[in-house]
Design a protein that fits this description.
With about 400 residues, this protein is α+β, with helices and mostly antiparallel strands. It has ten helices and 14 strands. It has one domain: q2cbj1_9rhob like domain (Jelly Rolls, Sandwich). α5 crosses α9.
């Protein structure tokens, strides 16, 4: 394998990109053979087309094409550009590149995380529940690369109005209802920023942590994530998945890499390439990763997930600030209220669009209208109440 050449030294970014070309081409061919993409289609009302549901449950993912319209996409891009311009000029800095107080100090949870260029910050460590057991190749960045680059941005519902409105998107919420039931609950949200030639990798992993040994375990028990793509995603910067692995329980990822000659280029993986405005849906039990971005292409993926209520109520917190905290009905209600506010924020911006009706808040709509008051009461620091399982 090409990686054998890197066994005793670190490849340059250019060498890594060249060595990945054949693997990426083969992955694209595998993806085309599977398909699993197309526009959102409903059989009737909010009932997702049966072929789409069947394809999702068979393979563990689906790519919805052209979900986000041009006007909204431009608003999201502008809001994202503004947020990035207000990021700290460097990790732990208190000002942005223009000398203004950096965004994020007003929130209790950090808004930005940073990594070394082209690095794998969690692979082979016990971080994030130890769910990334095998480390990815870390190419050598160009000589003028910064010491650290932005990697993740948190709290889109409190930092950008366009992000809150996206959270209330009627088609995406209807899809969540079809997959997780009308009383579905939120998970969390994070924006992946993979800068051209600099973006770090995310090692192979499965997202779920809590329910692998549950007597009620099934292929949907850990929920799913949407990723809304603001720019084209390519094999060099996008999410890669191994179809069908959501059905196989907790995998021995380290053994899989070892059996592949120590290579991170797992043989059955496919890249979820997208156009701007496309939205991927990926089961959280799916084996997935993203490679170091040695490509010339920017990726910004607005990621947010949803769970079945039965998977969350009575579980204990993981992947959050208060690990071990019990998720009781009040905690779930408080975090789910963000959905209700997001629906109304979207209604105010797009009054001609049919708003989604979120069943847990039917009859409570007037208590969760989008306003400065509900921002302070519901939205500010909402991500301290994320529901990780």
């Amino acid at each position: 394998m090409a990686e054998a050449a890197f066994a005793d030294r670190v490849p340059t970014a250019a060498e890594h990109a060249a060595s990945m070309a054949e693997y990426m081409h083969a992955g694209e061919q595998r993806g085309r053979a599977i398909g699993n993409r197309g526009p959102v289609r409903f059989a009737s009302g909010n009932v997702l087309a049966g072929e789409i549901q069947g394809a999702y449950w068979e393979h563990g993912f689906y790519v919805f094409e052209n979900v986000i319209g041009t006007e909204e996409l431009e608003e999201l891009r502008a809001a994202m550009a503004e947020m990035l311009s207000r990021a700290p000029v460097a990790k732990d800095a208190e000002v942005d590149a223009s000398g203004r107080p950096a965004l994020g100090s007003e929130f209790k949870r950090p808004t930005f995380t940073w990594v070394r260029p082209l690095s794998d910050p969690v692979g082979g460590t016990e971080l994030v529940g130890g769910r990334h057991p095998s480390k990815m190749v870390e190419p050598k960045p160009r000589e003028d690369a910064p010491k650290e680059v932005l990697h993740l941005v948190y709290g889109m519902c409190q930092t950008m109005d366009a992000g809150l409105r996206l959270y209330g998107h009627p088609q995406l919420l209807a899809i969540a209802e079809n997959i997780n039931g009308a009383d579905f609950t939120p998970f969390n949200d994070a924006i992946f920023v993979k800068q051209p030639g600099l973006g770090g990798s995310v090692a192979w992993h499965q997202d779920g942590l809590t329910h692998w040994n549950s007597p009620d375990w099934n292929e949907g028990i850990h929920g799913f994530n949407f990723q809304v793509q603001l720019y084209p995603t390519t094999p060099g910067n996008c999410l890669w998945v191994v179809p069908g692995t959501h059905k196989r329980g907790k995998l021995d990822i380290k053994a899989m890499v070892k059996a592949n000659g120590g290579s991170e280029r797992l043989p059955d993986a496919v890249p979820l390439t997208c156009q701007p405005g496309d939205v991927t849906m990926v089961n959280r039990q799916m084996l997935h990763c993203s490679f170091a971005n040695t490509s010339p292409d920017l990726r910004i993926s607005m990621t947010f997930g949803f769970h079945r209520r039965a998977s969350v109520v009575g579980a204990r917190s993981v992947l959050g600030a208060n690990d071990g905290e019990l998720y009781d009905e009040q905690r779930v209600f408080d975090r789910s209220a963000v959905i209700a506010v997001a629906i109304d924020a979207r209604r105010q911006r797009f009054p001609d669009e049919e708003a989604y009706v979120y069943q847990p808040f039917v009859g409570l709509e007037d208590d969760f209208r989008w306003s400065p008051d509900t921002y302070e009461r519901v939205i500010r620091d909402y991500n301290l109440k994320d529901l990780g399982i």
